[in-house]
Write a structure and sequence with these properties.
The structure holds 2 protein chains of 2 kinds. Chain A is α/β, with parallel strands linked by helices. Chain A has a single domain, classed as Rossmann fold. Chain A contains 9 helices and 10 strands. Chain A has a 6-stranded mixed beta sheet, sandwiched between helices. Chain A starts with a strand and ends in an 8-residue tail after the last helix. Chain B is mainly alpha-helical. Chain B has a single domain, classed as MetI-like fold (Orthogonal Bundle), CATH 1.10.3720.10. Helix content of chain B is about 80%, strand content about 0%. In chain B, helix 7 runs parallel beside helix 8 and helix 8 runs antiparallel to helix 9. The radius of gyration of chain B is 21 Å and the shape is elongated. Classes of the chains: A alpha/beta, B mainly alpha. Chains A and B meet through helix 2, strand 6 and helix 3 of A and helix 6 and helix 7 of B.
Chain lengths: ~250, ~230
């Protein structure tokens, strides 16, 4: 379980990205965090794997306070929490296979034949068995994101963080990626945290959702309830029930 | 063309030796400069205020040392370093005698080229490597440098050609090589033919260096779509 406790993040210059955000994400859940641009949702997800350090508040994972981890302990923790990015974050000078093998390199300093075999299985699982030797520039956006998902799965993560993972993709690729994430969650029980500005994405795969506005949680609960009876104006607007100018 | 064969009978060996000396100075000095400059460039990148291991004060001091070394005109550096050069290689003359100042001069240049190449690598890719739990040395070695390699290779041609220019200046104080020949024969003895041939040789060297590096860089660059022949 990931427990974010009263997370704040202030940047130099007085920008307050997060103001006391508390969220509990249960194991095995697909949890959505939704908000418009600038709501602080990307900052929040980056606090989970400590790509950003919260200014205050704690990040508790399975009862362990990880907020102040450094060095080898931090790197070991990050291997439990994989991440998928809007811009895919693939290494452009490496083949799909070598990208998927990168977490092995990061954890052990070398890539064994077993690792390569596992990476090939993962590529097959995301439907890219025949693209192992392709470079990212030879793949479509959807294919690149599938490579990134295979890379995320390499270290058998307990959690997968998706930072606007489908925002750069066309509807067909989006559907494919969401189905894949859903399937991974069902088969392995991996907890998935989905950051998005799209209610459509939330509706399709999330069980629970938090609505973030100006770095604060304004609404939180099961997706059906929030969709059926939105309380906050931003939620209503995100659902298209009211116009933004209202 | 009796004139031409006569010319090469007289000067052929001299020009051949000059070319070999020049190439030796350029490639050996640049090799050392890259060994050192690569380290300095990576350290500059990693310790910058927005780097993976920010050390602002150290970074500022190192940057200042690099800038200072780059500010000194090469001919001044060459003379100023003579005691150091003599202590290191026991001569200040010839091909060997000019290598230490060439290395000292080229290293900060290389460091900035490397730093520049590293900073061109998309932030996304490197952050993803970080999120995979890679250590800083691992990120540098397995992500940053391979991603920056095409750019680094393009930088190599710029460095080699700059160092080639420096060797010509070093010719003025007895370093040997084509620059030395151009000055001794062309400038002091008004033997224009020798000077012209020397300059032509230098132009050819520059073209070869530039073309070779360009070909290598585009061959190892996988960021854009492959040429038809590869697909």
């Amino acid at each position: 379980m990931i427990s974010l406790q009263n997370i704040t993040k202030h940047y130099p210059g007085g920008i307050h990205a997060l103001n006391g955000v508390s969220i509990d994400i249960d194991d095995g859940d697909i949890f959505g965090i939704i908000g418009i641009s600038g709501a602080g949702k990307s900052t929040l997800v980056r606090c989970v794997n400590l790509l950003e350090r919260p200014t205050s508040g704690r990040v508790i994972v399975d009862g362990q306070d990880v907020t102040d981890l450094t060095g080898a302990a931090l790197r070991a923790y990050r291997r439990r929490v994989a991440m998928i990015f809007q811009g895919f974050g693939l290494l452009l000078q490496k083949t799909a296979l070598d990208n998927v093998c990168f977490p092995f390199l990061a954890s052990k300093g070398r890539i064994t034949d077993d690792d390569r075999a596992k990476a090939k299985e993962l590529l097959a699982r995301v439907g890219l068995a025949d693209k192992a030797n392709s470079y990212p520039s030879q793949l479509s956006g959807g294919q690149q994101q599938r490579v990134a998902i295979a890379r995320a799965l390499a270290c058998d993560p307990e959690y997968i963080l998706c930072d606007e993972a489908t925002s750069a993709l066309d509807p067909a690729s989006t559907q494919l990626i969401l189905d894949l994430l859903h399937q991974i969650n069902k088969e392995t029980g991996t907890t998935i945290l989905v950051i998005t500005h799209s209610m459509d994405v939330v509706e399709r795969i999330c069980n629970n959702v938090t609505v973030l506005v100006h770095g604060r949680v304004v609404e939180q609960g099961p997706v059906e309830r929030i969709f059926a009876d939105p309380q906050d104006e931003t939620t209503k607007a995100l659902l298209g029930r009211v116009s933004w100018n209202a | 063309m009796p004139n031409l064969s006569e010319f090469f009978a007289n000067y052929g060996n001299l020009l051949m030796q000059g070319t070999i000396d020049t190439l030796a100075m350029v490639f050996i000095s640049s090799g050392f400069a890259y060994a050192l400059g690569l380290i300095v460039g990576v350290v500059l990148y990693v310790t910058s205020p927005t780097g993976h291991h920010p050390m602002p004060l150290f970074n500022a001091v190192l940057g200042w040392v690099v800038n200072m070394t780059r500010s000194i005109p090469f001919i001044i550096l060459l003379v100023a370093l003579m005691p150091f050069t003599r202590a290191l290689v026991h001569t200040t003359m010839g091909v060997v005698g000019v290598m230490p100042p060439l290395v000292v001069s080229a290293t900060p240049f290389v460091a900035r080229m490397i730093e520049q190449s590293l900073s061109e690598v998309p932030h996304d890719s490197i952050e993803a490597a970080e999120a995979c739990g890679a250590s800083i040395p691992r990120i540098v070695w397995s992500a940053l440098l391979p991603e920056a390699l095409p750019s680094i290779v393009r930088g190599v041609s710029i460095t080699l050609i700059s160092v080639l220019g420096y060797t010509a200046i070093a010719g003025a104080v007895g370093a040997g090589g084509l620059g030395d020949i151009a000055i001794r024969y062309g400038y002091y003895r008004y033997e224009d033919e020798v000077m012209v041939v020397t300059v032509i040789l230098l132009i050819v060297l520059v073209q070869i260096i530039q073309s070779t590096c360009d070909i290598i860089a585009s061959h190892i660059d996988h960021r854009k779509r492959m040429h038809m022949s590869h697909e």
